[in-house]
Structures are given as C-alpha cells and as structure tokens.
Design goal:
With 211 residues, chain A is mainly alpha-helical. In chain A, 69% of the residues lie in helices and 0% in strands. In chain A, 32% of the residues are buried. Chains A and B meet through α7, α9 and α10 of A and α7, α9 and α10 of B. Chain B binds a DNA duplex (30 and 30 nucleotides) through α1 and α3.
DNA sequence: AGGTTAAATTGAACAATGTTCATGTGAGTA
DNA sequence: TACTCACATGAACATTGTTCAATTTAACCT
C-alpha cells in the first residue's frame, strides 16, 4: 500500500528531515570531530526541536551510529570499486583506496572506530559485521595468490593484513602525532605491502617487469 | 631548601592526594572505560571536593592526560625490558610484549590513543613524543639487521612496523568486533612478523635451527 | 604561643549538554 | 466539518564539567 512514490505528506516530511539531520551531523563530525557534535546544534541547523531528533533516532548515540553505518557503507562501496583483474594490483589498490578514503574522511573514520557506547550497551552488530566484511575484501585476491593455503588461514591473513594497513594509516594520519606527509604515507603503505607480500612469496608490483 | 625528604605538611598531603586521585581515575578507566570517568566519582572516592581535583589538575582533561602519560611511561618501561642480544628475537619480543601490555590494560591504551581534547586544544607534546619514542624501539634492532639501509629509512620502517603491529593488536582486542582469541592473536602477530621480516630479507626465528 | 598571612579547600552555584514528557498541532479520516 | 491520533514541540529535568567567594588551614613572624 505504502510504497516510496506514494507516501503520506507526514512520511515525506519525516524522511526528508531524517536525511537532513544525518547530513548535518555528518558535516559536524567531519569538520570538527565527534566530540563537537551537540544535539541542540543539530536540531537548530535542521530547523526542528531536539525532541524530534530523539523521536527519529531514539537517543543521540542513534544519530552517531547511523552516520557510522553510512560511513562504512561508503567505504565498502569505494573498496569494492577497486579493479580485481590482477590480484596483486588489487591488494595495492585496496590499501591505496583505504588511505585515500581515510585521508578524505578522517574524522568520520575515527568516529566509526573510536566511538564507545555509554554504559555497557553493545555496539550494533550490523555495523561490526560491515566493518569485518570490508576488512575481508583482501580475501579473494589472496586466495588467487595463495591457492594452496587453506581458507581459514587466508581469512585470518586478510584480516591481519588489513588491520596492519589500518594501523599504519590511522596513526600516520593522526595529526596529533608528528604528522606524516600524505605523499610519504602512500609510499610507506606501498613499501609495507612490498615487503609483506614478498615475505609471503608473492612477487610485488614494483619488482615486476613493466606491462 | 625544599627537597623531597623534607617537604611541608601541606605538600605531603597534596602529593598524597594527587597520587590517590590518579590511582582512582586509572582504576575507573581500566575497569569501565574512559567514558565512565566522572569528576564527582573521583572526588568522592578520593575523599575530597571536586574543586581540589581542579586545583590539582587544572581541568578534567588534565587528569586523563596524566593517566595517559603514566600509561605510556609504563609501556615504555615494559618494552625497554625486552632482551636485546638477538635483534630478531628482540623484534618478536617487542611485539609480544606490546600485545601482553595491551591485553592487560586495554582500556588504558584506548584512552591514550582515542582521547580527543575538547575544542581544538593541542594534545600535549611530551605525550606524543613518548609514544613516538616507544614506537621507535624497533629502530635499534632493525639497524643491526639491515646495516646497509640508511638511517631515515630505518626510522620510517620502525614506525611502520610498530604501527602495523598496533593495528593488528588494537583491532584484534576490540571486543566490539568478533573478538580474536588471545592465543590466536599472539600467533597472528608472530606470523605477521615472520612474513614481513622474510620480505625484508631477514631470517625469522621460526626458520632458524634451534640454538 | 598567639596573631598574621597566604594558599589550599570547599561546595554551592553556574554552564553545557543529554533526555524526558505534558501539551499543542496538523495530517488523515469519517 | 469534526474528530482523532500520531508526531512535533520546547520547557523542565538530569547529569556532569567548571568556577569562585567564603572558609579553613598550614606556615611564618614576633
């Protein structure tokens, strides 16, 4: 009965505002960090009352979590767009794309990885699952490169490798620390993969004859 | 005139309370996470007023930062205790010790890496420096293992390697995610180092003939 | 010892911010 | 048009970081 094209005026306003709230919250997190996100600011910018924010998202964590959910979705989309013909290039591409995405949306990524729920409420399972799935994107190229390894080992390796890349990038982009210049960070990631893939017995891109 | 053995009654009380406040704050962070740390709780447990906490630490961030400072000091101490006769073993030892320390004090480490100052105040430089120094502890064994590499490259490599290990461990211990069993995590780190050192042309521990 | 002073302590008041809920409003419906 | 109910509202409340005028207290002086 109620499909998207034919929804009531109420539902239209509601869903438009929902999107607006998310856009504003995302903008604030991206620009000034999660700690600067305030209910009243969001409500005022969205032209509604604080009650409406609560009505739509339950509590303030609900807003944050929804933004985080969309962040990991966008990340997954970007990573899924990395060409997969050549498995070695795909691994380098995944790392480089993660670096790009992280550099573009550092505060959103930090919100995703650093936000803690209040009390001891559990972090939503679907978000965790999406993060795990993103980190598992190295699985398929690794399977092609290491055909003799068993699948569980590859799954673990995929997660290890991606976690390592994540560590290099997230600390490298931490402007609090002595900031690594972005260009150097890219090189750092590449060299890291060079060495690690070589150690796995895989010939890295840099060592191959051109074309 | 005022040395440590001969300090005024006032200073004695003050420094005793300072230690007490830190101990309590550390305990709360370690047990329930940074988000559960509240000024009033700390003051009450320390048997003083909230004003005294402010008098001693300036603001609440001051308490957190002091705890973080002591965390990185303790970490550095532990890492500095890793035997250094054999540079390869030292690298494995540093990673294993970091894992141990992180597992024992997960919430304290998260406080160190995830705490953001309010507004845009800068993170204290001395803490950043100490973290960098800790991450540079792989430098000296790497120099011995790669005598031909130039020093800047080694410094970068040290940071990259330690950041990678940090990523593997911090995500691996993230109980929010599908928690990796601690024993498996240890193996994961070891295998990671095996592959990476091999890729650098270093013979890993596992591949050497015993003794 | 007693008085004086400077500094630390206190906790009530304030400020900022997340959360709730009684009340009002307007879209849907008969 | 009248009715109704789900949603929007924002004032009030709850929690927590921060300030500061009044109080207490240790240190110093004579």
């Amino acid at each position: 009965m109620n499909n998207v094209q034919d929804e009531s005026l109420r539902d239209q306003k509601k869903s438009r505002r929902r999107l607006q709230i998310l856009e504003i919250a995302r903008g604030i997190i991206a620009a000034k960090g999660l700690r600067s996100l305030k209910v009243r600011d969001v409500a005022q910018s969205a032209g509604c009352s604080v009650g409406s924010v609560y009505n739509e998202f339950g509590d303030f964590d609900g807003v944050i979590l929804t933004v985080n959910r969309e962040t990991v979705q966008a990340l997954t989309l970007r990573l899924a767009g990395v060409p997969g013909e050549d498995p070695v290039r795909q691994l380098y591409g995944l790392a480089a794309t993660y670096l790009e995405f992280f550099a573009e949306h550092a505060n959103l990524l930090r919100s995703l990885f650093e936000h803690r729920m209040e009390d001891d409420r559990p972090y939503p399972d679907d978000i965790l699952q999406m993060v795990m799935n993103a980190f598992a994107l190295m699985h398929s190229p690794l399977v092609r490169l290491l055909p003799d390894a068993d699948d569980v080992k590859i799954a673990l390796l995929s997660r290890t490798l991606f976690s390592a890349v994540h560590g290099i990038i997230s600390l490298g982009l931490e402007e609090r620390m002595v900031a690594v210049p972005p260009q150097m960070l890219r090189q750092q990631v590449t060299q890291f993969l060079d060495a690690h893939l070589a150690g796995l017995g895989i010939v890295p891109v840099g060592a191959r004859s051109p074309r």
